[in-house]
Specification:
210 residues, mainly beta, 10% helix, 38% strand, globular
Length: 210
């Protein structure tokens, strides 16, 4: 799958509408009870970028970005302003935000992930597109330095430690991240007259698996 490691202009994604989508199959039995199942292990996010447009210059920027991606052909990064940190949006990223795993003395690579907790239930989301320079990592409660103690693969969402963490040590990290997406259309329809009157084009965006 073609993917360009470039972010959709963040000032245009601000103000857009969207969020996670789940797929659940619901079967109602004869006795009124339900059986529910899902073929998806992870949610898929959808957005409408058109709602973030505010000027004719924004439309020009959108068209340039759309043409450079060849419509739906190439994926790209998207900043979800409602969910782009390993911590709460009002907080600063910390190396203690998320637990990535436990060291065994041999494993040096750890995949980034974010845990969503509600009551006793939780969901762990793979983070595949961290923002360069935003990743903070630590081992056993001690902060480490990127470029000295570990490297970050921003295309796969993987931290590689220079020295594999010791057995039974807790590996943690904090980060900002983007969502891998593509345009969910091969046509962008704009009207200068209607836009000036307050109308904006619909620009559907959908998350892709990478």
């Amino acid at each position: 799958m073609g993917f360009h490691e470039i972010r959709f202009p963040a000032n245009l994604s601000f103000g857009s509408v969207g969020g996670p989508e789940r797929r659940t199959d619901v079967v109602t039995l004869a006795n009124g009870f339900e059986e529910r199942n899902t073929p998806w292990a992870h949610s898929r996010r959808r957005y409408d970028a058109g709602l973030g447009l505010r000027s004719l210059d924004d439309i020009e920027t959108l068209i340039s970005f759309f043409e450079a991606r060849r419509g739906q052909l190439y994926g790209f990064r998207w900043k979800d302003w409602a969910d782009f940190k390993s911590c709460a949006n009002s907080e600063d990223v910390s190396y203690l935000d998320q637990i990535l795993g436990t060291g065994d003395g041999e494993t040096a690579e750890f995949a980034l992930r974010k845990r969503y907790l509600s009551g006793e239930q939780s969901y762990t989301r793979p983070i595949l597109k961290p923002v360069a320079g935003s990743v903070r990592a630590g081992v056993n409660g001690d902060p480490l330095q990127e470029g000295v103690h570990y490297q970050v693969d921003t295309e796969r969402g993987v931290i590689t430690f220079v020295d594999a963490p010791d057995p039974d040590t807790e590996v943690t990290a904090g980060f900002e991240f983007d969502v891998p997406v593509r345009f969910d259309t091969d046509i962008i329809q704009t009207s200068v007259a209607s836009f000036n009157a307050g109308d904006v084009p619909s620009v559907p965006i959908i998350e892709v698996r990478v």
